[in-house]
Amino acid sequence: MYLYNSATHKKEEFQTHTPGRVEMYTCGPTVYHFAHIGNLRSYIMEDVLEKYLRYAGYEVNRVMNITDVGHLTSDADEGEDKMLKGARREHKTVMEIAQYYTDAFFADCKKLNIKTPDVVQPATGLIPEFIQMVSGLLDKGYAYLAGGNVYFDTSKLERYYVFNDHDEEDLAVGVREGVEEDTNKRNKNDFVLWFTKSKFEDQALKWDSPWGVGYPGWHIECSCISLKYNGEYLDLHCGGVDNAFPHHTNEIAQSESYLGHPWCPQWFHVAHLNTNDGKMSKSKGEFLTVSLLEEKGYDPLAYRYFCLQSHYRKALVFTWENLDNAVAAYQKLIARIAGLKPGGDVDQAVFEQYQAKFNQVMGNDLNTSMGVTALFDVLKAKTDDATKLALIGDFDRVLGLELLKKAAAKREENAKAQTAKTEGGYTVTGEGDPAIDALVMQRYEAKKAKNFAEADRIRDELKAQGVEIVDTKDGASWKRV
RNA sequence: GGUGACAUAGCCAAGUGGUAAGGCAAGAGUCUGCAAAACUCUCAUUCCCCGGUUCAAAUCCGGGUGUCACCUCCA
């Protein structure tokens, strides 16, 4: 497969350290609040990537961290810990908050059909390992103590800016009001590995360490968790684009300095979900969650479809109109699949032909938009329904839209309609409610008498009850919607 | 100020040098008393702009412009 690699700025053939096996790491959520649908876009695309890798025959070991400590609102030893902020907002302990939002995160993932990673590791569960790594970096001379904190010395590296061509001189520090430069730092981009001194005194979670009681910096957790569960050679690291600098840059600095050899050659960055005025963000206050979509009557999987229609490396603009567009497309797709008749033999030649095409587009930098198009191509293909259903089921192992399941449910719903009444060649089919059958028949009588006002009145009355009439060739059918 | 990504119809988009896929929306038709649903058809001489290379450019090169992101915590 070919994947765009943000470390080299090129599309490259995907390679693994151990043939056939992918060591994959994905940055997980900071569990101080609900994930918004912009956050979830990344997890959806990573999920599709993981599923495609498995589909393509790789064995995948996917690791994800849960940031439940040490995530400052700023890198400059300033501001508040996000976890603590969340806890204070809700009058709960930090650990209660972490558990609550971790559960909420995975509940959202489930609704979006995002597979839980093979390993999920909360940062607070690995403190001794963090300390060991920080000690190692100090021993090797890559870190220094200043003002009570341990910092990573970026000047010790030959190449620190791996994702872009920053010139240290040009980096703006404290761009935003209220962020002060940390004067303990020797270089502009040095970052904290371990805090013992913080400007806020009531940090809830603290651990003893060789440098005093404190807590880890944000970046160390990902390096350390990956090292523990993926081993010394990581194949693929994923995350949102905003993490490329400084978070991923710092991870590389730490990991390679500690290990003494190259660490992860391939980086997969997902672009943001934007609103009309820039990216969706928690710091802006209002944000959309999966629950909110559900409250508004949206199927979370329609949002997944919305994301798949676009490419992961392209900013996607969220508007309700765009989502409605996706909902219509998703529902039509399901309705068309529901119209296919299950059973019968699969035409192997046709199956392989279409499968190869799907494989090719998905293997081309995860072209999900073309992957979705492949579904429509199958529907239009000149082959039998059994083959079409088999292909759709096969593609959906990667796309994760639960197409067969939804189509089967729809088919079942349609089957509930049973012949209820036939009079004078006019057949009313419905879900088995004689009262409604009678009304539909009354409407027919009114139509026959050219009393269209009455006929429309009955249609409106049924609609108010949530019953939809569909006129057919020789009668009418109704269903509850 | 620096760095990076992106720019194709009303919207989401494919396209990786050979003459603009697909989906949604819209319009027309069939059906219908009308509507809905369904089905059929239509819908970019042109790909942000200006140059260049080439028999041939949305695709390659140079120069602009615009949008977004990162340099603060964010997916």
What is the mean pLDDT?
Answer: 87
Give the helix/strand class: alpha/beta
Shape category: elongated
Strand content: 15-25%
Largest sheet: 5 strands, parallel
Major β-sheet strand ordering: 5-4-3-10-11
Count of discrete alpha- or pi-helical segments spanning 4 or more residues: 15
How many distinct beta strands? 18
The rounded distance between the terminal residues' Cα atoms is 43 Å
Task: State the helicity in percent bands.
Answer: 40-55%
Radius of gyration: 28 Å
Low-confidence stretches: 73-78, 174-178
Tell me what you see in this structure.
With 481 residues, this protein is of the alpha/beta class. Helices cover 43% and strands 17% of the residues. The protein has 15 helices and 18 strands. It has helices spanning 37-55, 82-90, 94-111, 127-139, 218-230, 244-259, 290-295, 300-308, 320-338, 348-362, 368-380, 385-399, 403-416, 434-448, 452-464, and strands at 2-5, 10-13, 21-26, 59-66, 119-122, 143-146, 149-152, 191-195, 215-216, 236-240, 266-270, 273-275, 278-279, 316-317, 418-423, 426-430, 467-472, 475-480. The strands form 5 sheets. A 5-stranded parallel beta sheet has the order 5-4-3-10-11, with helices on both faces. It has a 4-stranded antiparallel beta sheet with strand order 6-7-8-9. Helix 8 (300-308) packs across helix 9 (320-338) and helix 10 (348-362) runs parallel beside helix 12 (385-399). The radius of gyration is 28 Å and the shape is elongated. It binds one RNA strand of 75 nucleotides through helix 1, strand 10, helix 6, strand 13 and strand 14.
